[in-house]
Amino acid sequence: MEYISTKEAAEKWSLTPRMVVYHCVNGRIKGAQKIANVWIIPKDAARPEDRRKAYRIGKGGGVYQTFHP
Questions:
Q1: How far apart are CA 48 and CA 30, in angstroms?
Q2: pLDDT per residue as tens digits for the range 4-45
């Protein structure tokens, strides 16, 4: 299995390296391993899901939940 660094994963997924480490620490990247203070990520690992949510008020006054891409 081939692995990539957090910097390479960040470029691949359009995230910052710090956010990639955050996802690794929280177990959101399947197969990521920490070896000697360095995170390695499987080359074919999927981008972690963005769990941020936004709310907006519709024309009728209702509150709708939307998700960021």
A1: 9
A2: 999 999 999 999 999 999 999 999 999 999 999 999 999 999
